[in-house]
Amino acid sequence: MPLDIIVGAQWGDEGKGRMVDYLSAKADYVARYNGGDNAGHTVTVEDRTFKLHLIPSGIVHPNPISLIGNGVVINPAVLLDEMDRLESAGINVTPERLQLSHAAHMITPSHLALDKAQEIARGKGKLGTTLRGIGPAYTSKISRKGLRLSILLDEQTCTEQIRLQAEEINQALETLYNAEPVDIDAVVQNFAIYSKKLAPYITDVSKLLTDALERDKRILAEGAQGTLLDLDHGTYPYVTSSNPSAPGALVGLGLGIGCVGTITGVVKAFQTRVGSGPFPTEIDGDIAEKMRGTGEHPWDEFGTTTGRPRRVGWLDGVLLRYATRINGLTQIALTKMDILTGINPIRICNGYRKDGLTFRELPFGVSELSTYEPIYEELHGWEEDVSHVRQWDNLPLEARTYILRIEEISGIPVRTVSVGPERTQIIRTI
């Protein structure tokens, strides 16, 4: 049975956690392949809401084994805290249910301090990072100075390498950024504790998944962030430090090209973005406030990790076509259709204008996105509450028309439609 991949087709925050939870019910393994605890997936089950940052959303189901791949950067303190919170909520997080790649790199307090110092130094040109140490951890990895999870299996090696890295980053903090150094002895002591707690969870995730595929097991690969934040294919430099796009799943889990089955792109019925960077269809005013919500509910448009209000706007069909191509999407999972109820008309961007020319595709990807003006088409909205609808034919005609237009623009089918945060609030279109 092939590997199925689920990715965010926008700037993240599309509702991937909710869709991964839905698809995990039939999976044997759910594997996270990129990013760190700068990502946040929210899962609502009846009266309980789970906010996950590192552990795959599939952990909320009783059967799938959750895996964190080599492409993820792990802050051991954050991971252990998340494990404790899940255990307190009655979720089993034993080594039989959660396993970590020995080749995943770690985020240390030194990376956190460096992230903050670098963002302060950027001044007005700051990137709007989550200050979780993600970028510096990936920088350490690329510069061959990173610390893999496997060093936790040897106390002496762990102590030596943690100390060496901290000393080097402290020098940069003091000389380049005039920032406070980290307490190296405290860091070493904490990592000795992490070593004892996490050692039973460390394994070869690549081999485990390869064997699982040979046994015809169902595997769901879960990406963090979204395509437009991809390090190579996103709105550079306002991007994350990894590859959230679908090809990143193979590198981030250590799997071969021939194992892929469906590639599901999660698309919010409108568009949101957290942090700095271009956003052609961004809006403000009453409609924006309705899309965003007040923050009263877990599903309102405020960052799961940061709590920052998200920027909101109309769905961008040009970027959706781009995401479809970059990922090789085979289907769409559309989320938050219920939020558009009462908005009339509804706009979709299906082209850009620049220097008197019209573009349906961007000449050089999305890195120069800020120089383009969106071209909109308008569709009729609907007034009916769709949160109780479970059948395609029971959706208002205008809602169905909107979804069919998304299919036409993207060139691929919308297979599932979310009309609320609960597991049961899903419409299958086939």
Note down, in words, how this protein is organized.
- With 430 residues, the protein is α/β, with parallel strands linked by helices.
- It has eleven helices and 21 strands.
- The strands form five sheets. The protein has a ten-stranded mixed sheet, with helices on both faces. Strands 14, 16, 17 and 19 form a four-stranded mixed sheet that branches. A two-stranded antiparallel sheet has the order 3-4.
- The radius of gyration is 22 Å and the shape is globular.
- The model has no long low-confidence stretch (mean pLDDT 94).
Keywords:
ten-stranded mixed β-sheet; Adenylosuccinate Synthetase, Chain A, domain 3; Adenylosuccinate Synthetase, subunit A, domain 2; 2 domains; alpha/beta; four-stranded mixed β-sheet; 430 residues
Give the count of helical stretches.
Answer: 11
The shape is: globular
Mean pLDDT: 94
How many beta strands in the DSSP annotation?
21
Give a short overview.
The chain is of the alpha/beta class and 430 residues long. It has helices at 16-24, 76-88, 109-122, 134-142, 155-176, 184-198, 205-214, 247-253, 286-292, 317-327, 397-410, and strands spanning 3-8, 29-32, 41-45, 48-52, 65-68, 73-74, 98-101, 105-106, 202-203, 219-222, 260-268, 271-273, 311-313, 315-316, 331-335, 346-354, 357-359, 363-366, 373-379, 414-418, 426-428.
